């Protein structure tokens, strides 16, 4: 059976996953054998949130990782730069 391309699956599900409080990222990853997976990043460990995220999306396994908060960089500035 041929699965839909993972990019299509990500396009379909990223917005709904990102709307969940505590989800800070969604992207395509891969297992050690190079099979594609969906990776969901959480700002903090949450069993309640883990239970709400499906184990598979349209046939692709979902891997949940805790990254901590993600803070966007200001354009043209390093996160370690000091304002003068």
Protein model, in words:
By secondary structure, this protein is of the alpha+beta class. The protein has one domain (6-66): GMP Synthetase, Chain A, domain 3 (2-Layer Sandwich). The chain is 23% helix and 29% strand. The chain is built from two helices and four strands. A four-stranded mixed beta sheet has the order 1-2-4-3, covered by helices on one side. A hairpin with a 2-residue loop joins strand 3 (56-57) and strand 4. The protein is globular and about 50 Å long. The mean pLDDT is 89.
Q: Classify the helix fraction into a percent range.
A: 10-25%
Radius of gyration: 15 Å
The tally of beta strands, per DSSP, is: 4
Report on the biggest sheet.
Answer: 4 strands, mixed
User: How many domains in all?
Assistant: 1
Q: Would you give the CATH topology?
A: GMP Synthetase, Chain A, domain 3
Q: What separation lies between the terminal Cα atoms?
A: 59 Å
Instruction: Provide the CATH top-level class.
Output: Alpha Beta
> How does the helix and strand content classify structurally?
alpha+beta
What would the principal axes of the Cα set say about the shape?
globular
Write a compact overview of the structure shown:
This protein has 84 residues and is α+β, with helices and mostly antiparallel strands. Helix content is 23%, strand content 29%.
Q: Tags for this entry?
A:
84 residues; alpha+beta; GMP Synthetase, Chain A, domain 3; 4-stranded mixed beta sheet; 4 strands
């Amino acid at each position: 059976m041929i699965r839909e391309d993972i990019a299509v699956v990500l396009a379909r599900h990223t917005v709904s996953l990102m709307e969940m409080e505590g989800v800070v990222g969604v992207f395509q990853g891969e297992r050690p054998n190079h099979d594609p997976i969906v990776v969901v990043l959480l700002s903090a460990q949450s069993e309640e949130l883990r239970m709400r995220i499906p184990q598979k999306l349209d046939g692709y396994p979902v891997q949940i990782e805790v990254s901590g908060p993600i803070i966007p960089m200001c354009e043209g500035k390093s996160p370690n730069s000091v304002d003068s």
